[in-house]
Design a protein that fits this description.
Elements lengths: L6 H9 L6 H12 L9 H8 L3 H10 L5 H11 L13 H19 L4 H12 L3 E4 L5 H11 L6 E4 L5 H11 L4 E6 L5 H12 L3 E6 L12 E4 L12 H16 L4 H15 L5
Parallel strand pairs: 1-2, 1-3, 3-4, 4-5
Length: about 280
């Protein structure tokens, strides 16, 4: 089975083209995360998995064009036959969290089988001078990491990792300086001010590239290019290995459209050696 023909990819294709409510997007996101199990789940089990009511699952199936959830489940068993995922067995909660992150990375690999979206995003970001990078609260670390490395190859990277009334001012300043695109990292729980900031950025004429936890995240409607990468939810605090890796992939794509990237890296290495910056 090719990565583009995986259960998760087929589910994603099933949801595309439908206008889903926030609750329905939550159900869809949960189904993609547990793609191998979904054909074997009852509507009650799926409702518990997604944290919604059982009638919400029924309405979701109807929104997709089925008579009800049993019809949707039959369809999934026909088009995506698979054995239910094996139980975790003796694995403890920490091992289970790691296994879940490995599965998130597998889903990311499947999505990257078609690199067109990442390459388009890389072109948009490389061309923007300056390049604002937005990430608030849980996503601030992802934005900071991207901006740190991007500044080594891009001439003007501006990190936007604090909210408040100054955020719109900083977007305005980037636009006045010539920015054409903005990169956003958006992770749960999604702060309202991120959605407001992206709406403001689009109204100001910026193309918005977003790395989010799901194709159904609230920021999807205000993103020109949305790159999904799931977060882990097995621990008290979410884990974000896949969004971090996707950020590095996006950096690679951006470098491909920055002819001076290699020269900048070599210049940095030369100066770092002269300063004795690193001990290794």
């Amino acid at each position: 089975m090719s990565v583009t023909d995986s259960p998760a990819a087929r589910l994603q294709a099933l949801f595309e083209g439908h206008r889903l409510t926030p609750t329905q997007r939550r159900i869809a996101h949960s189904m993609v995360r547990r793609a191998a199990d979904v054909p074997f789940l009852s509507s009650v089990e799926l409702a518990e998995l997604a944290g919604v009511s059982q009638p919400s699952v029924t309405r979701f199936a109807v929104a997709l064009g089925f008579d009800g959830y049993p019809a949707l489940r039959r369809h999934l068993r026909e088009v995506a036959p698979a054995e239910p995922a094996t139980e975790a067995g003796s694995a403890n909660e920490y091992q289970q969290a790691v296994e879940a992150e490995i599965e998130n990375l597998r889903h990311l690999a499947e999505a990257l089988a078609d690199p067109a979206a990442v390459r388009r995003a890389g072109r948009l970001l490389a061309a923007s001078r300056p390049l604002p990078v937005l990430g608030l609260r849980a996503a601030a670390a992802q934005a900071h990491g991207f901006a740190y490395f991007a500044a080594k190859v891009h001439p003007d990277v501006r990190l936007l990792n604090e909210g408040g009334t100054m955020l719109s001012d900083r977007i305005d300043a980037a636009v006045r300086a010539g920015a054409s695109a903005l990169l956003c990292f958006a992770l749960p729980r999604h702060p309202r001010e991120v959605l407001d900031a992206l709406t403001y950025a689009k109204e100001a004429g910026l193309s918005v590239v977003t790395v989010a936890d799901s194709a159904f995240a609230p920021v999807a409607k205000v993103s020109d290019v949305l790159l999904p990468a799931a977060v882990g939810t097995g621990l008290a605090f979410d884990t974000a290995c896949a969004p971090m890796l996707l950020g590095r992939v996006l950096l690679e794509a951006m470098c491909d459209d920055l002819p001076e990237a290699q020269a900048r890296l070599e210049e940095f290495d030369t100066k770092a050696a002269a300063r004795g910056l690193f001990v290794d």
